């Protein structure tokens, strides 16, 4: 199958989505996508976390022991569509700047099933 550059533009986000598609991930299904913002200041990370909670975002906050940065992860349950990802990246980038942090990208778990008849609920219930 040839790549549809309108659906999967030739940039980092388009490349990741295209690779997910090529790997067999069903991009019409909602995924929990994780967006990250990094801070050098715990105080600024706390302020941003409170702001995001008031915006009704699901988040986690932790200190990365390797970098001594404070990292907020924002969990958004959505279909991984290019335009929506770009819009959220822009919003989270603005928020990061507002609180003196740095937007650090997104990622998600791939949902790939080799067997078309595989039912994860049935699998969980059978164990």
Account of the protein in words:
It is a single chain. This protein is 37% helix and 26% strand. It is α+β, with helices and mostly antiparallel strands and 127 residues long. The protein has a single domain, classed as Alpha-Beta Plaits (2-Layer Sandwich), CATH 3.30.70.970. It has helices at 12-22, 42-54, 82-98, 120-125, and strands at 31-39, 58-64, 69-78, 102-108. The protein contains four helices and four strands, in the order αβαββαβα. Residues 122-127 have low confidence and may be disordered. Residues 11-108 form the Regulator of ribonuclease activity B domain.
Topology:
Layout: H1 12-22, E1 31-39, H2 42-54, E2 58-64, E3 69-78, H3 82-98, E4 102-108, H4 120-125
Antiparallel strand pairs: 1-3, 1-4, 2-3
Write a brief structural summary:
The protein has 127 residues and is α+β, with helices and mostly antiparallel strands.
CA radius of gyration:
17 Å
The helix/strand order is: HEHEEHEH
CATH class: Alpha Beta
> How many individual domains?
1
According to CATH, the homologous superfamily is: RraB-like
- With helices defined by DSSP (H or I, 4 residues minimum), what is the helix count? 4
Overall pLDDT level? 90
CATH architecture: 2-Layer Sandwich
Low-confidence stretches: 122-127
Number of strands: 4
Structural class: alpha+beta
Give the DSSP E fraction (strand runs of 2 or more residues).
Answer: 25-35%
The largest pleated sheet is described as:
4 strands, antiparallel
Q: How helical, in percent, are the residues?
A: 25-40%
Neighbour order of strands in the largest sheet: 2-3-1-4
CATH domain fold name: Alpha-Beta Plaits
What is the 3D shape? elongated
Q: Give the terminus-to-terminus CA distance.
A: 37 Å
Protein name: Ribonuclease E inhibitor RraB
Pfam families: RraB (PF06877)
Domain Regulator of ribonuclease activity B: 11-108
InterPro entries: RraB-like_sf, RraB_dom
């Amino acid at each position: 199958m040839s790549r549809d550059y309108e659906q999967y533009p030739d940039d980092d986000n388009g490349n990741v989505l295209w690779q997910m598609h090529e790997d067999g991930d069903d991009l019409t299904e909602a995924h929990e996508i994780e967006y990250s913002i990094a801070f050098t200041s715990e105080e600024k990370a706390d302020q941003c976390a409170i702001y995001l909670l008031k915006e009704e975002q699901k988040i986690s906050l932790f200190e990365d022991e390797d970098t001594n940065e404070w990292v907020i992860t924002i969990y958004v349950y959505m279909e991984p569509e290019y335009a929506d990802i770009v819009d959220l990246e822009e919003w989270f980038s603005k928020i990061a700047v507002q609180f003196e942090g740095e937007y650090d990208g997104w990622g998600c778990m791939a949902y790939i099933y080799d067997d078309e008849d595989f039912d994860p609920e049935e699998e969980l219930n059978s164990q």
